[in-house]
Amino acid sequence: MRVRQLTEAEFVTAGDWWDALLARSPSNSFFLRHAWLSAWWRHFGAERELRVLVVENTEGVIVGVAPWCLTRETDLGVLPVGEIAFLGREGVTGDYLDVFAEPALHGEVLRLCVGALLMNSGWDLLKISDVLETSPTLAAMIEEARVRDLAVVPGKSQLCPYLPLPATWDAFMASVSGNMRSNLRRKEKKLAALGARIEEAHGDAIGPALDTLFELHGARWETRGKTGNFIDPRLRAFHHDVAPLLDKEGALGLWTAIIDGKPAAAIYGYRHGGRFLYYQAGFDPAFAEHGVGLAIMGHAIRRSIEAGLTEFDYLRGDEDYKRRWTDLARSTKTLVFARPNLRGLAWRTLSSGKETAKRLLGRTPAIEPATSP
């Protein structure tokens, strides 16, 4: 087998074989799909260099992909650090990132790709981020670090709550607590009395519905003195780009609650592999007392059940509002591998000093062990 780097032209036209290989791989994450990553590259790739490595077998068939790019960071002031990391890591906050390959070849693909990277001196750090703790990539990378003299620095772990879905809405309502069941029914009746309706966006309605989501999300965060994620125009453009593509495949879920002709709440996510992936939501604070946030989340869960999905995945973040629905969670981990060169050593020293100072000042807790559902 041999490793080679895709050209940008090869990457942007790789959709068919890329998604077919991903679907066969145990690393079959929505956030590794070609439509998602190629859109990310269009909107966030300007200051980066593509480093997508593929492994081909003796017949020239691609059997594995390391979807990486190179960023030149400036954390060290006069010493810019070259960091290899996953496509889709920044800006859009993709979860469950990984190398993907034919099932029996995952370890070999990873070994070959890391070996190919080490033959190039243009980078200092390799960040393996937001990888499921059950992925074989983590243990394999730690072993590669041992034999290749790379320092390993643990990064931030993330919890991703998830909710198993039964076959029917009645079964779901029977499974939740009496308090949640009563609350849902009460909010639904209250909204019905206000003449609320919930619209699902498709086709030409997607763009306006996304803009509504952005505004509602921002309005919610303004009440806390913050701006929200969608303040970045690149992020807005990214979702305007990718959402219509996903809609054509039946993978988009985008709903808006309307009260008195005004948008009151919106929720946005994706269908993949039998799951609904909840990406973002927002609501008008003026309607908060009516429980529109709870009601539209319940609507998305109901529609997911009706579509035959078996899980509602809340993705990263262990916020209280997610824990109202479930006490189950997956864990993802991040590991940073530093080369034994001047920049790698300087980064390790600086990073260690920053984390120590933050913990001493009480600004951030020490890294907690990963937990399983």
The total number of structural domains is 2
Poorly predicted sequence stretches spanning 5 or more consecutive residues? 356-373
- Span from first to last CA? 37 Å
Beta-strand level of the residues, as a percent range?
25-35%
- The count of helical stretches stands at 12
What is the CATH-assigned architecture of the largest domain?
A: 3-Layer(aba) Sandwich
Overview of the structural elements:
It is a single chain. The chain is of the alpha+beta class. It folds into two domains: 2-159 and 331-361, Gcn5-related N-acetyltransferase (GNAT) (Aminopeptidase, 3-Layer(aba) Sandwich), CATH 3.40.630.30; 166-309, Gcn5-related N-acetyltransferase (GNAT) (Aminopeptidase, 3-Layer(aba) Sandwich), CATH 3.40.630.30. 39% of the residues lie in helices and 27% in strands. The protein is built from twelve helices and 14 strands. The chain has helices at 8-12, 15-24, 34-44, 106-118, 136-148, 169-175, 178-193, 206-222, 233-248, 292-306, 320-323, 342-361, and strands at residues 2-5, 48-56, 62-76, 79-86, 100-101, 125-132, 151-154, 158-164, 197-200, 252-259, 262-272, 275-283, 311-313, 329-338. Strands 1, 2, 3, 4, 5, 6, 7, 8, 9, 10, 11, 12, 13 and 14 form a 14-stranded mixed beta sheet that branches. β3 (62-76) and β4 form a beta hairpin. The model is unreliable at 356-373 (pLDDT under 50).
